[in-house]
Amino acid sequence: MMHPLGSSAARSVSLVSCLCLLATAPHFAAGAAFTKKPTAVRQGDHVRIQFAVDAATDVAVSIADAKGGVVRHLVAGVLGASPPPPLRPDSLEQSVTWDGKDDLGRPAKGGPFRVRVALGLRPTFEKLIGSNPAQVPSIRAMAVGPDGTLYLIQCHGGHHPMDGTGSIAAFNRAGKYLRTIAPFPAGTPPDKLRGIRTIKLKNGDRVPFVYQFETRSCLPGLGDLPKHSAVVTRDGRLAFVGIQEGPKCFAQPGEARLTVIHTDGSVPGDGVLKTLIHPLTDSGASLALSPDEKTIYATGVRAGTHPCGPTNRFSCDNCDHSGATWRHTIPVPMVFRFGWDDKHGSLFLGDRGGRHTKRPRPVEPLDVATDQAGNVYVADFGADKILICEPGGDRLAEIPVKQPVRVAVHRKTGALYVLAGNKKIELIKFDGHRTGREVARVHVKTYRWLWPLHRPVMALDDTADPPVIWCSSNFYRIEDRGGRFTKPVSMVDPERIGEPAMASVMEMTIDRVHRILYVNNRRRCDLKTGQWSSFKTPGGRMWPRSNPGSASGAAGRDGNYYVHLGARRGRLLRYGPDLQLRKFPVTRDDEGRLCGFCRNRGRGQTADYHGNIYALWKKFGAVSDKGDFHRAHVLSKSAPDGTPINPKLINCQIPSISSPRVDPQGNVYVAVGVRPGTHTVPTELQGRVREGANDPDCVNGVNSYPMIYGSIIKFGPQGGTIFEKAGGIHCNYAYGKPIDVKGAKWIRAGISVASSWATPKRTPGTTISCLCENPCMDVDEFGRTFYPDAGRARIAVLDTAGNSIRTIGRYGNPDSTGLSFWWPQAVAVDDSHVYVGDRLNRRIVAARLTYEAEATCEVK
Fold first, then answer.
1. Domain boundaries, position 70
2. Is 448's pLDDT higher than 70?
3. Domain boundary at 472, 497, 522, which?
4. What is the reported pLDDT for 763?
5. Are the C-beta atoms of residues 362 and 376 closer than 8 Å to each other?
6. Is 5 helix (H, G, I), strand (E, B) or coil?
């Protein structure tokens, strides 16, 4: 089939004009209109379509059948110097020919037909799917304000263990969700955000600065925090201990610093980072306030170590245990004390180098609290007791408790509340430190295994009557009824909060043939009925004998669904819309699978109209090339029966390639962690973020932006190569390492997160992170590319010639509605809608594809 967009004219665009085209985005006049509405005149076997507009804009020309369904997508692109053929350059009057065929090259059926011409793509918000900020993910810290408001530091969106993203939400004392304060609410005045770094875009929008790329931190140190206790002051300050994570894989231990924000989402003008509590830890610290709120106590620190011995380094040059520091930390038997403006904490209890030997020395202190008199209570897990000391540090009393984890004190009654246990967690009430008499006890939860960094936390609301105790285990609410506790009630029970949140959307595709939306390779929605279902086959789960977390799925243009299984030795399976396995006949595998090797989960696969399969694999064996870097990737093409067509359709020397898509003409689009030229960030961010490896504002000075930004690359059906010194378009990856892209029709920088790997693996100064993050973009039937730009909280749209059509959406936290995103990572599009998977807002945003102006005419 020959399509107008696949004509020789399209292939004749010079590299120089292509690069100039990509350098600037067009400026469209608002409110595009027709000066000549479309007409359709038959000329033999063809139909001549003509129209004219009043200003440069983007246009979309299609043929609809009698029922309104699109049978042929003729062209969509930006009018100007280099529009996609057959649109004429530098003309507001256009003439397009239709050959009477549908998108598959067959004679179109279902007439009479109408020509539809649309001007100025302007998607309009339709609805939020799975949006429920009351659905609490992993709770990492709790604190109750003087008015009874409960603040939760939460963690979600992780790709691996220990690389989740932190957020802070507020609930009332009945457990009803109120608002999110971190990330900051959209529309927060800039003068209230002076204490943190934000990025002002050219259109005036302000988006959060990414302080740490593996935890997507909107505040320095608010990443994948361990569990600890936070505090809230009477004047509206929320303080917790953040960890300035190390720059290696999976956010290793780093500095523990007091971190302060305001309960309205604003921040102190002099910055959020305060007292240094410990130089190297993965545990943070639990906090308590003196009665006058001028003094802060901290404990529960675990010191960072390494399998090769204690170290202050984030990695070891003698071994490859860069991530093992998480499993090799030891308790610090100390309680620290400091004021709000102190640079360092002083030792309150414990033994540091033989000093303070007359004061009590806790063994493994996990939590700390104070009473109205200023006495300090320490939950000493290692010594099986609650240690009570006077404000000066002298021992006052001890209460034996088996494995105390958290402690709180009622400021009026003096009653103690202790969360205790290692696997079997119980809440215990004592009448006070003078007698230490147990008053009540209730079982909270039993764990099979409890990681020391994830021991549960609690918070006491002693302004309530009766007092309320909150526990992170299932977000329990417990009331103190004097001599007994009420049964723990979960605040995340579906009957209380309604439908659960969508969870972190990282992968999403549409089967346009059957109108099925697939999400995270776990759930799917029939867009015709709106019904959701989980992936089930007659034999059980879709992924036999495989870890679902290592699975990656994508719908093909042929109406089948392709699942890539395995984190190391990979295999590709094909399912029909009924979820029945459709084997590849030529393979010798009993399950009819295509086999290969993919270390970083399936980074992507798809199929074209004819069922040809495009799959990304890690190169190995005979597919490897001399000079390949660590975990280099290749995009292969196979026939519908599994016969190899081109095992190196796109041959890549580096591993930074993902999300392959194919347009109706067989052109291949991929997201790659490279950028054209020498700049390491997109044009709009140049001068707004640094381009080198270092940025003093980032956590540990490690610049996130070159590591999360890459490009969309369009290759023709013949594919291409991404190699050093290969010729073609000169590009760079990681922090500016040179690489060439050969065979590309165009490159457009700006997709994120498109991991820009630092390879080869052991090159000094380049091994920063494994970065297994994958963007999920989409290409519609016109060949328009819709791709996520998480770093600027929006979606961008390109035409098939690489021109920028527009961006969609702006920054917003979970309380925002409309086309607002925090971390858009997945996009899926069909003829009527675009669906955006927001990983950190945990929802899907659905927008209808509308235009500024539309006109139709009959084909007679």
1. 4-124
2. yes
3. 497
4. 42
5. no
6. helix
- Strand 138-144, strand 93-98: pairing: unpaired
Q: Do 339 and 366 fall into the same domain? A: yes
Q: Are 38 and 857 in contact, with CB atoms under 8 Å apart?
A: yes
- Regarding whether 213 and 97 lie in a shared domain, the answer is no
Distance CA 170, CA 176 (A): 9
Classify residue 819 as exposed, middle or buried by CB count within 10 Å of its CB (0-12, 13-18, 19+).
buried
Q: How far apart are CA 680 and CA 736, in angstroms?
A: 6
Q: In this structure, is residue 484 part of a structural domain?
A: yes
What are phi and psi for residue 29, nearest 5 degrees?
A: -75, 140
Record the tokens describing residue 407, joined without a space.
């402690």
CATH number, domain containing residue 102: 2.60.40.4070
- Residues 382 and 429 placed together within one structural domain of the fold: yes
Which of 561, 535, 566 shows the shortest CA–CA distance to 549?
566
**Rounded mean pLDDT of 442-454?**
88
- Whether the per-residue pLDDT at 26 is higher than 80: the answer is no
Three-state DSSP state, 691: coil
Number of domains, the chain: 2
| Beta-carbon count within 10 A of 595 CB | 15
Read off the pLDDT of each residue in 576-585 and give the average, rounded to a whole number: 88
Buried b (16+ CB within 10 A) or exposed e, 71-85: bbbbbbbbbbebbbb
* Alpha-carbon span 175 to 156, nearest angstrom: 20
Token duo for residue 486: 């009420």
Q: What was the pLDDT predicted at 453?
A: 80
Residue-wise pLDDT tens digits, 240-279: 999 887 656 556 778 899 999 999 999 999 999 999 998 8
H or E element, residue 280: strand 273-281
* Percentage, residues of the chain above pLDDT 70: 86
678 domain residue, yes or no: no
Domain end, chosen from 57, 89, 124, is at 124
pLDDT at 445: 95
Q: What is the rounded distance in angstroms from the CA atom of residue 314 to the CA atom of residue 473?
A: 32
What is the spatial distance between Cα 223 and Cα 257, in angstroms, rounded to a whole number?
Answer: 13
pLDDT score of 573: 86
Q: Tell me which amino acid residue 549 is.
A: G
Q: Over the stretch 416-426, which tens digit does the pLDDT of each residue have? A: 999 999 999 99
Q: Is the pLDDT of residue 116 over 80?
A: yes
CA-nearest of 157, 168, 151, 286 to 214 is 157
Residues 341 and 410 in one domain: yes
780 exposed, middle or buried (CB, 10 Å; 0-12, 13-18, 19+)?
Answer: buried
Ranking 428-437, 567-576, 669-678 by mean pLDDT, the lowest is 567-576
Residues with Cβ within 8 Å of 515's Cβ and at least 6 positions away in sequence, in order, are: 526, 527, 528, 830
Q: Are residues 116 and 155 in the same domain?
A: no
Q: Whole-angstrom Cα distance, residue 498 to residue 490?
A: 13
Alpha-carbon distance 637 to 773, whole Å? 23
Asked if residue 101 and residue 186 are part of one domain, the reply reads no
- Shared domain check, 146 and 27: no
The domain that holds 272 is classified in CATH as 2.120.10.30
Q: Which two tokens stand for residue 159?
A: 């790709």
- Smallest CA-to-CA distance from 571 within 536, 608, 606, 543 is with 543
- Domain assignment present for residue 97? The answer is yes
- Does residue 2 surpass a pLDDT of 60? no
Residues 53 and 188 in one domain: no
Domain-located, residue 463: yes
Tell me: the pLDDT tens digits for 632-675?
Answer: 889 999 999 989 999 999 999 988 789 999 999 999 999 999 99
Strand order in the sheet with 569-575: 552-555, 561-565, 569-575, 594-597
Q: What is the pTM of this model?
A: 0.92
pLDDT band for position 355 (50/70/90)?
low
E-assigned strand segments in 480-584: 489-490, 508-511, 516-519, 523-526, 531-534, 536-537, 540-541, 552-555, 561-565, 569-575
